[in-house]
Amino acid sequence: MATEPIHDCTERWHRHIRGELDGGLDTLLHEDCVFLSPIVYTPQRGREITKLYLRAAGSTLGDADPSSASASPSTESAFRYTKEIRQGHHAMLEFETEIEGKYANGVDIISCDDDGMIVEFKVMMRPLQAINAVHARMKAMLEQLSDG
Length: 148
Known about the structure:
This protein is 33% helix and 32% strand. The protein is of the alpha+beta class. It has one domain (5-67, 81-147): Roll (Nuclear Transport Factor 2, Chain: A). It has a 6-stranded mixed beta sheet. Helix 2 (47-62) crosses helix 3 (128-147). Mean pLDDT is 85; it is low at 63-75.
């Protein structure tokens, strides 16, 4: 029985988060992928801009940048996935974390193609106080990543 593409895709995503995926985001993201953020109102199109946003999010939400060769997931990180729904070409991964003392809850909604490459990555979060904290931290992180 063939496995649905999203199963392989999300397994590789989890390996990436743990810093265990050779090739990192380049092996996960389709070159024409779209990133949808709770912070930015327009879709971000393309692998490079999606990598930039995912790196910033990893540093903001997870206290580590798993795409960096020297980074390892922080044992102090509050970020964790709590639930997963996977079927066909789509997955919903619910997460929890703490940002500046504020509880944050959200979902990563991932869509992949037949080859298991991510074609769309959407992040939704709550509550508003956490989103505001993420917005401030993401803005600073994106400026830092864009300059460096």
